């Protein structure tokens, strides 16, 4: 099935529209054009006769006029590449029908009608993985955002809510398990026993994007949960035979999510059954279909032999995320796709708070900020910048972004910070109560927050409409016993938004007494003008400023701070995030200065000495737990350093960053190795202490790799050989993969042989090589492209090789442009197969404006070559055009 559109002629005649292809911009959809759908669809009946190559879908829609919408003589039923087998209206021929592009328009003159639509689809040919598709012999669906229209003709928009009943039938041997949304109400077999069927009913009205179906040969881990209202819920995690012993963590995570949402948000589950199914071909992480969550296997399967600590955390977070959508997404859904952050931003915040409660709150906060700054800040400062509530799109799949998700979560977190936890809960309670069963807007959410908390959020709404990361300059002056903090904000221009208004920015702030090393309490300051001054009395000496504690606002700060003050904060700020931040700033400041040539040799030497001293204090601070210590020892990422510069030279940053690593590894060698030896004594477990020890070990290895490669290779090889868990083994192999040593080759081979056949671990094997610091990384990736286990049709495998590579500056930004060409080749080859996944590779090339000119020209060339392709998907077309624009 092809998703490229044929443009409709003005009279909507599909035959006429079928002219020779000419590349033409797909239409732009605007938020301001929203109008309610003229028809309601109170009930939907679906019958599926399932087959991998041929599935017949009979849809019966009860439709009636929507009293609050404009009267229309037709109903628009969206389709995408569908063939209509038959159509009746009230049992007969409809008064009129025509195709408008891929959509079906049916003339309806009465107030109520019954439409019956039959389509036939080929799931095995569906490589886009949207709609109904085959994955390893099973059938499954992905309907968000606009996949349902690839199954049947339907008003495929989130504001059309319908109650679904579904009958599925198919060969019993091929599809022993038949699952759908809601509850299974009946089942049976054909007379000869070859076929069987199941009848499902979902009592909760839902938009089509939450529809799901699974048919296949699956086994389940089953459990149960009793809700706070006393409802017994049957829980199942379905996987392929053989994977069952890797589902325990997913099930435990699910039960913890259900309990946590009751305790923290007062949200109770609302069906008797909750199913999760793991699928190995999946475009995204997971999907919150009502009562039938479908997951990428990556976010379900784990045991300590094959999954890292990071994988365990990822599973807990994503299981929580999808479960929490049952309220923030399903019970209250979105009016239109411009409101996507209504459910995604809020649900990301909910999963972040959940994970923080399950593990280390400060470490979770630091990890979340690292993702925001590593992925969202670049988005916000590049050609694809958009507000968390976009104003227009051509392909909605392109807007499942870090901005909508992660910045969206930060925006709601700021409301929580300003309101306080208790008032925030009153706001969310009111939101759920007011909009339960509705398709709501971001504006509805903000209004419920205002009414529930008493905050005035008039100006705060700018966070929904303005793109770009605000920059705040902070200077602290001192006179007599008064300290004055001057804050000035600018919100940079972004595409389509040249002029910005000042936004309210909440800062948690503390002023430290330099001598005592303490402060007398944290304050919340809200900067709501372009510039403001805040005064603090009672300071005999100039205090040290600790600002944006806990990362209370998603902004970047330029503070007038000395290195000595940063060393002070890195050693004793009582806010763990602020402490981490001071350490990062110490290193980032040095690296930016050194790349820009702003530091002479003695300044450089002094700076490196200070950084080493600060790190040494962290190594030796016995108040710290190792998880947090690991954060403080981590160097800023190359892309974060690049973000601090107007135009970055990736080659120079890479060299400077590696040189600092070498220097620090040398200066701290002994202290780091003592730390390693201590950590190596901690026996394996999944508790925080043991996780911290594992984090430390690999971190020490990576410093050692820079300062003493031979010793690092030996140490890493022995960590690899003795590993009794994937975290240690992968960490060691990651370090080895960057070293040109005999140990490298042997351990890579061992890893592959040990885990071949386990797709998720083979993904790691591809990713480790693609993200390595090895000088031959480009050639390695080229060779891996031809490996028999590489498969362009499996998104996990594509990402493991190429996403890892695109995120590896040492390879992607290779000086001869080979990395850019490789990604462009991939996009062109993948686009007809899986447009959504292909389009996700475009933003890396779209960063060209912020890269030095030689590389920038080659990045542009790569984009232009993609743009010249005779036929591009809407997804890739939109991303490439915006990136060049
Ligand atoms: N709602 C899903 C989640 O965040 C993501 C679905 C994304 N689908 C897509 N076609 N982009 O959990
Ligand atoms: Zn989500």
UniProtKB/TrEMBL annotation:
Pfam annotation, one family: DUF3458
Region of interest: Disordered: 1-20
Keyword Transport annotated: no
Domain Peptidase M1 alanyl aminopeptidase C-terminal residue range list: 564-884
Gene Ontology biological process: proteolysis
Matches recorded under InterPro entries: Aminopeptidase_N-like_N (IPR045357), Aminopeptidase_N-like_N_sf (IPR042097), PepN_Ig-like_sf (IPR038438), Peptidase_M1 (IPR001930), Peptidase_M1_dom (IPR014782), Peptidase_M1_pepN (IPR012779), Peptidase_M1_pepN_C (IPR024601), Peptidase_M1_pepN_C_sf (IPR037144)
Domain Peptidase M1 alanyl aminopeptidase Ig-like fold residues, every copy: 468-559
Record-annotated Aminopeptidase N-like N-terminal domain positions: 118-210
Residue ranges constituting the Peptidase M1 membrane alanine aminopeptidase domain according to the UniProt record: 250-460
Cofactors demanded by this protein: Zn(2+)
Record-level Gene Ontology MF annotations: alanyl aminopeptidase activity; metallopeptidase activity; zinc ion binding
Family note: Belongs to the peptidase M1 family.
Protein name: Aminopeptidase N
Species, as recorded: Qipengyuania flava
